[in-house]
Each structure stands twice: as C-alpha cells, then as structure tokens.
## 1
Amino acid sequence: MKYQIIIPAHNEGNFLSDNLQSVANQSLTPFRVVVVNDHSTDNTESVIDHFTSKYPFITKLNTTSSEEHMPGSKVINAFNKGLEIIDLDYDFLVKLDADTILPSDYFKKIAEIFHLNPKAGIAGGFIYEQDKSGEWILNHPMDKDHVRGAFKAYSKTCFKAIGGLKNAMGWDTVDELLAQYYSFEIHTEDSLAVKHLRPLGKGYNQKARLLQGKAMYTMRYGLIISFIASIKMAFKHHKPKVFWDNMRGFLKAKKEKSPFLVNTAEGKFIRQLRWKKIRAKLF
C-alpha cells in the first residue's frame, strides 16, 4: 500500500535522527516523508538536511510559528503545512512525532491492517518509555482502543470523512470519535512497540490543562461527562489539581461560548458513545 508521513518538528535535534533512521529502515518504504521544520532554533534543520541528502523520499518544509509549545494547535498547524504539499494519491496517511523510534516492520503491519479490514479508519501501536533502570515499559494511560497522537495512521477515506485534524487541544480524541461516527473502526496493535524518547506530558502545564477542559466543552461532552472524565484524569496523573484545571477550562469555554469542534448530531453520538463506555466499566 502507498503511504505518506508528516512529521512536525520543533527543536527536535536530540531525537530526530533516530526517528528518521527508523522511518528510513521500514521494510515497507514510505512513498514520501515530509518533515516540517517548525521554527526550530537548534540543529533540527541540519538533521533533516542530512536525511534528505540520503533518502529521496524525505522532504524538508520550513515554516514559522510561535516558539511556545502548546499541545494541540502548534503541532497541527505544522502538520497542516505538510499536508499542503503531499501527493494526494495515497492509501493511508501518518502523523508522526519526531521523538519516536519505530520497529522496522511498523508500517508493513499497519498496511496489512488497512488492507485486511476496509472498516479500519485509524491504526497504531503502543508507546513504551524508559524507566529509571533503563527498561522500556508500556506507557498507555488511555483505554486500549485509543491510538496515541504520536503515531496516528489514517486511511484516506477516514481522513477525508472526519475533515482532517482539528486545530485544537483534544484533536487526537475527537478524530477517533468522529471516525466512529462515520462507521470506521479504531485498530490498536499490541505487537507494535514504539519507543518514545520524551516522557509523557513533559510539555503539559496549567494552561494546557485548561485547554483540555475547553476541549471537553468543544467536543460537546456536556458537564457530567466532563466532570467524570476530569476525575479520571486526575486519578491517573495523581494530581487533584488536574480536575480543577480541567473544570475551570470547561466552564470558561462555556461562559465564553467557544465554538464547537463538532456539530449537533456528532455531539449527540459522542455523548452516547461516552456513556456506553462509562456503563461498560461500571457494570
């Protein structure tokens, strides 16, 4: 199958070489890889140049944006810049973080998933991070049917159906909710272990948590589901403040009447899906 990869990269010089080498080593070679150098001030560009000189399928795209790292908007802005120059002839499209290392058969198996299951809309493996002893440990605080935003692969039909990626915090949740709304399936593959070189949540701060609450509002979760989801997040992070920041963000977005990411029908489906999962865990 024909696939293309977009890699947003802002000051990723410490990780990008390992990332791109793992992409170049894939047993199923990508048709094109666009590395978006997003306003980097370190050696990110020179690393990209090194790989573009060795591998003709790797392309560099320089762009300028804010230096502030905010989950959601910055990375999707860069992704969308890359989206503008990819070839429109592909079977699946990948949004890949620059601080990951993929096993060599990663995209061969992803291609098999999409080939064997026409209903598969989003696919991916699982993240592993090093603990203090240097051992690679599974780090997946979400439900097992969730593909992490660091390495999301979308079938072309699914990507078009969901309207691409939302430029907001929560983009890697709403994409899966909308995929299911349009009758696509989310496929996670246990055998695909991806090494994540930067600890989970390192770039998240109070402002990001407020945006998380805003995301719950804009995805039309409603107050009760947002309340439950915020409690769950606080427990998983072992930080009660996460709950309060999330709810503050939700209530602020509601007061300001922030625009929704989904329409009324999609929002109704999302709430029904969330309640279904909550009941399944309770009973």
## 2
Amino acid sequence: MSENPKKDSFRKKLLEKHNEAKVVRRIVLSVFIILLIVFSGLIGGGYLYIKSSLEPVDPTDQTPVDVTIPIGSSVSSISKILEENDIIKDDRVFKYYIKFKNESGFQAGDYQLKKSMTFQEIIASIKKGKVMDDVVFQVTIPEGRQLTEIASIISNNTNYSEDEIFDKLNDKSFIESMRAEYPDLLTDDIFKENVKYPLEGYLFPATYPYYQEEPTIEEILEPMITKMSEVVAKYIPQLQEKNMSVHYFVTMASLIEEEATEKSDREKISSVFYNRIDKNMMLQTDPTVLYALGEHKDRVLYKDLEVDSPYNTYQNTGLPPGPIANAGEMSFVAALSPEPTDFLYFLATKEGEVIFTKTLEEHNKAKNEHIINN
C-alpha cells in the first residue's frame, strides 16, 4: 500500500485530467483541420470558378453573334442577355465586374459580338456601338396618371390589351424582378398592408421610344421604372438626412401632383400637407377619395367622403398607404422642399387659382366667395 493514499489519488486524478485534455486537444485539432480543408476547398473552388467566368467563353471562336441590347436595359439585363447569347459564362460575375470597374454609358443597339471576346472588349463594344436610330413607336405617360390609365395608354399604342398590361403590372414575379434590379426604389413598403397596387406611383411620366416592332410588356415597362429610379436616386441623400423613406416621399409627391394645377404653387400645397400632419389633422384631400372609389369625377360629393378605405384622408390621419398617381419631378421637389408657411387649407378656384388660408373661417369664406356663390 502507498504511504500516502491521498497523494496517490490526487496524482491519479491529475493524470486522468491530463489525458482527457490531450484527447480534447486532438479532437479540436482534428475538427479545425477538417474545417480548414473544407474552407480552403470552398475558397479554392470559388476562386477557380470566378477566374474561369472572367475568361472568354471560347478564345478560339471568332464567329459573330448578333446581340440586341434594348433601350432602357439595366446592367443586370445586359448581363443576362450576354449570358443567354453565350458571350459570357456567368451574368452575375459580369455584373459585379462592371460595378467593380465602375463602368457605365452602355448604349442600346444591335451588336455583333464573339465568344472569344474578353470582358473589356465586350464592354468597349457596347459603349461605342451604334445606337438604334429608328423609333418604331413611342408611349407618352403624362404626369398624374394612375396605373389603370397607364395600362390604357400603353394598350392604345401596342397590340397588348389593358388587362394583359395591368396584370403584368401587378404580377408578383415581375415586381420581384424589378425589386431585385432597383432595391433602393422598390422597397418592402410597396407590399405593406392596404397598398392597393405595389407599382402605383413608380412609373415615371415621360415619353418613351421603342425600337422593336413588338417588345414584350416587360421591355415596355422597365424603362419607366428605370427612369423613376434615376430621378429618385438624386434625392436619396436628402431623404436620408430627413429620415424619410422613398415610399413616403413618392406618396407625398403623388398627393401634391393630384392637387396641383398649372397656376398652383406646389411648395405651398406641400406645406399645407406637412403642417396638417404635424398637427395630427386629417389631410382631407379629394383625390384620395376618388382613388378609394376607383372613379374619375369632376366633383366629390359629401356622400363620397364616407367611403370606407385606408386611402380616404377624410377618414384617416396621415398619408394614405401608398401613392395615388405617378408624380412628375416638380412634385418630387415640392415634397422634399415645402415652403415654410402657416397655411392649413387651400382651395382651387374654377379659374385654376389656388387660395391658401390659415384658419377654417378664412377657408370657408374663400369657399363662399369662389365656389358656392359662383
């Protein structure tokens, strides 16, 4: 027997712990080595894939391939077209290459490209190529038009029916593809509760030329969203300073657009809306009632004001859930820079003049003078 049983027991436990620690260290080391091998494999595989994607599809193939880049094509669209025509291996790699190199200025047109071309040769070609000159048809979207009206305008200029166009404007897959393309413009807010049509307010009013006999509905609509993205992008820094979302901005601009006349001061109309919001007053703007009703009328009746809808600003405070029309740039400027005033009311006369007042008494007086007694 040992002279010191306690000491022997202590040494035994110490030895066991030492052996356990060695086993744990071996396990940890083994796991680390396995993870390192897997991670290295992923990194190596990813590197080899990207390296291959950056290289020409076939350095020996000099056969010309006819490629058409439509008007209004985004970088993503161009990349997909090139991959579909087997000019590049991976559209995502090409897209990120363009962004990394900060390339821009691509032109619509008909090109003859080759599978042997490098990325830089492809980029140079689609920047210097001949732009298609012959406009087959064009579509003009006036300011203040709603989605249903835009569908009608496009239908009148193409062989597509209003229903086909309107269905595409509300097609989830199409909207999601546009969101992926323009994430700063088409945010989650377009799908928030009670929004009537996700793309309402997001097609910029302008004249759009088309250079194909029969472009797809997507090819007709995307330039309108592209233009909207370009316009709104100019104001993003100011929106961030004001902590204002793009959706709020576009919605406010749509209200201003619908209330404005040729002789009206949009900055003052904007100030009335913001002043009322600050005082937690309902905006009480007639165009929201008409939008809720889904009608176009010259005059809103008292019974119309009772329509049960989140868009009815006679029933709800704050802005409606989303835009009620597609605003022009003057309304965007006004939405961002309201004139500093104390006005809480405005009234449009039959002559198109807009009278601004500070109190309900003044507003009713103006209404009696210019509306009721006229």
## 3
Amino acid sequence: MIRFAVSLCLALMLAGAAQAQAVRIKDLVEVDGVRANDLVGYGLVVGLNGTGDGLRNAPFTEEIMQNILERLGVNVTGEQFRPRNVAAVFVTGRLPPFARSGSQIDVTVSAIGDANSLLGGTLIMTPLNAADGQIYAVAQGTVIAGGVDAAGDAARVVQGVPTSGVIPAGARIEREVEFDFTQLSTLRLALREPDFTTAARIENAINRRVGQPAARMLDAGTISVDLRRTGAGSPARAVVAIENLPVEPERRARVVVDQRSGTIVMGEDVRISRVAVSQGNLTLRIEENPITVQPNPFAEGETVVVPRTNAGIFEEPGIGLAEIPSGTSLSEVIAGLNALGVSPRDMIDILKSIKAAGALHAEFVVM
C-alpha cells in the first residue's frame, strides 16, 4: 500500500510536470490588512451526564460556577458543590476580516479540567477576547463533540476526542475591528511562498493589466500597488481588478518525505549530480534454546539448565554499487528504485545519503 502511494504520487507529479499551470494572484498572496483575528474565552459547559470535572481536582470549575450563579442573583457563598455535570472549558474562534456586528462564527470548545466527555453539554454565555483584551464576540450553544466514551465496571472504551467539540455559528460578533479599508492609498501584497521570480511576474501582470507602472516589487515577498494609478476608484475595486490575473509561480526544488508513512513528494526541478550508491541491510538474529539436564535415575545430583544460544548475522539483498549520471532527475531515480523493488523506508535513507553527499540539489524536508 505504501509503495503504491509512492508510485501514485510520482505518476501525478510526472503528469503535472508536462505543462505548468497559471495560478490566480489571489491564491498566491495575502492582502496586507485583510486578516483574521484569534479570539479566546473561558467558560462553563453544563448538562453533562456525570462526565464533568471533579471539583476536588479542578477548583477553578467551582469558582467560575459560583461567579455565574452570583451574576444570576443566586447567593452560594459558603455552599459546598459536588456536581459532576459541569466542566470548565476554553473557547476559541477566529474573527474573519470585515466581520460585522450581529454575524455569527464557529467556535471550538476544549475541556481544561479532568472531565471525561463534553457530549450533550451546553456552553453557557462566554465572552471572547482578542489580543487587545477587548470583547469582540459572545459564545453560547450546544457542544457537538467528535468522540465516543463508554465505560463499564471493569473496562472503558474511548474513540476520538470527546473532551473537545465545536459549536457551528455558536458565537455572535458584538464588536467590529476598526479598520477603514477605503482610506488606503497603497496596497501591499504578501506572497505566501516568497520568491523573487514569482514576485516579478506578479508585478508585470498587474502593470500590464493597469497599463502603467502601478505595482512595484519591494522584495521576494512583497509587492506594493499604488491605488491612485490603477484607476479603479476604490481599494476594493482595485483588488477585484488584479486578484484574478493569472500568474505562473516559480517553485523551489524541494523534496518532502514523511518517515512515518513512507510518503515521498518532490518537484519536477529536482536534479542529482553524478554519484555512486550502494545499499544493503544487515539483520542480527539471536535465538535462545536452553536445555534442561537431569541426573540418571537413583544417582546423586540435581537438575540444571544449560544455556544454548544461536547467533548469526544475515545480509539481505540490496542495491550493489550503482552510478547515477549527472543531470538525472530525481523522478527517474525514484522510478528506478521502484523497479528494483526498494522499499519506501530504504528509499528515504538513500535520498538522505545522496543529500548528505551534496549530490541532491533541492531543499530536503523531513516530516
């Protein structure tokens, strides 16, 4: 299965290498100022079926429960709670750009105490703060947990993560981010993958579309666009005019390997210099076969155990000394190794050795 996955990825790469595809500018860059903001809050989930926090182990749960009840007019000072149907949680969400008051966003709820499950629980009204300490949204609703927790007297089965869940459209925005996009005179485009060639191509595409030098490449990751020269009338119209322009991005030569699954992904521009490769596997095998020795009948003596050990070293078939000519693409090397029946694990070790020898001309990423 792993070898099939490697061969499939190689086939897809070779099929896509035949013709480079142009990509829209909006898929290559981020517009400076148009970004989401992270939100976080601390709240309480109630209505759990005996799977909540143990208040002796999570005193903060009792504290927040007292605060909520006192805000609702219930005096619980000095009272002792020991419910098992409440859990303290962190609530996280993202405030999207240009979000307006009254719109709703999704939130994630995660237990922070010793609760076993949040299945069936309801999040009580929880304010969500941004990094500036201001409240931007309020969350409340039924938690949808993505796991199963079943237990008996002597066994317990857990599937997934029942202590974390989501509330779709569970938070309502109460405050807007103060950012006037219409007052911008210069638009900055930030490349997701900084590259001088790609930035230059984006600059040329925008200037051809506008008809005058409105875009200017500042560095490998930034293009500045003078909105006054675009003739669009507003920053939003300018973004609409340029974000769908096709540009062929330049990619770095890169090899990515995942040691856990044996997956190898590579670009078409990866090249290998002239190098010789020899690979083999050694297996050490040790077997213990002790023998029990007993004295003859009616003879004096005692039963003893005599150790017997069989040890050996075996060399499995591997790759003999093979020379790879200069200018060979990595895809050709992988195809040859696949034809020889080399396992993905050994293939990754070979690629590491070629990179260490300085013959693999690409960025080597190991996950």
